[in-house]
Amino acid sequence: MDEVRWREQGGTEEARPSIAAGLWFGMSKRESLVSGGDIFVSTYERLNWSRLAGALDHVYDLQFADFNEFVQYLLANRLWWLNVTWDMNPTRYGILSNTTEIDYSFNEVNSEAELWTSFHVTRIPEYFIGSERLETWLVGFDLTPISTGNLKLYEFRQDSGINGSYYNLYFEAPANILAQHGDNFTFSLDVTPSSRGQSVNMQQVIDINMPANSEVKQMSPLNMSIAPKSNTATFALAQDDRYPSSFMVVSGPPAKSFGQVVWENASVWIITPGGWAAIASLLVLSFTALRGRRIWRRSRLYHHLYNSMVTIYDLYSKDVIKFHQEMANVSTSVFKLLIEDKITDDQFEKLLLRRDDLLKRVLGVPPPP
Prior knowledge:
single chain; 369 residues; 3 domains; seven-stranded antiparallel sheet; four-stranded antiparallel sheet; 14 strands; 40% helix
C-alpha cells in the first residue's frame, strides 16, 4: 500500500552517436544506492584517441599534444568530462570534484584508451525527476507520488556498443500510487505533462503487479491493455501509439467458482435449523432428479433397441441368414444391458417378445390376431 518496487529494462539496436562516429568503442555505467542520500556511480569508457582528439579540437577548441596531456586536463577538470560524456550536471545533482576519481590506461600502438570514473550523486530527487534521460527510461511516468528522495534500494546498469545500448533499472521507494476501497485496490500513475499525447518512440511492455491475493478487474486505457493474468495487468505500447494521461488498474478478490459458493453456503446452512431443512429438501430433489434421469435413459435405450429390431427386419427379411446374424447381435446387447441394470425386467421381456415375433415372421409364421 505504501511502497513501489519498480523494475525496468530496455534497449535499442542503434549505437550512440559518439560510438557510431568512431570516437568511442564502448561505454558502460553502474549505479547503486549507498545510503539514503548517496548514489555511487562508476563509468567505463573505451576511447579511440586519434579520432577523439580531433573532435575535441573541433567542438571545444581544445588541443592536446598527446593522451597524457588530455588526462592531466581531466584530472584538473574532473566534473567537465561528466558533462561532456554522460550529460551530467554536477551542480544540479550534487556531484563534488573531491569525491570524483579518474583512472586510465593507454595503448600507443593502436591509440586505444580506457577511462574509469567514479563519483557520488547526493541530490537524488533532482537526479531522478529533473533528468530528461531518466524520464525517458521511466516510460514518461510522473514520479511525483513516489518518494525518490527516500529510496530503499536502487540499482542501474547501462552498456553501450556498436550494436546498440541496453539498460536495467530497479528501485524500491515509498509511494502513494495504490489505494484500497473495501476489498478492491486501485493503482493510478500519471504520465508527465510533456509526454501526454506524444508519439511513443519505442516499443514498450508495462506489467503492473497488483496485490498477490487479488485479480485484475479493470484496466485503462483499454486500447493499450492486454488480457490480464491473475493479479498482473499488462499494457503494450507501439511506436504509432500516443501516451495517455495516466495508467489505471483496479483489482479485487478472485472470482469464486460454483463449487466454492456451494460449499460456503452449505457451511452456513449446517449450523442453522432452517439449513438442515434446506439440505434435506436438496437431497430429496437431487435423488428425484437422478432417479428421473435413470428412468429416461432406460426408456431411451429400450426404444432404441426396439426400433433396431424393426429396422433389421425391414432390411433383411428376405435374407434369413443375415437376419439371424444381426438379431443375434442385438440379443447379446439386450442381455448385457439387463445385467448392467440399464433396462428394466419388463423392458427386457418386451424386447424378447418382439425378437421372437420377428423371427417367426421371417420363417413365414403369421402373427397372432
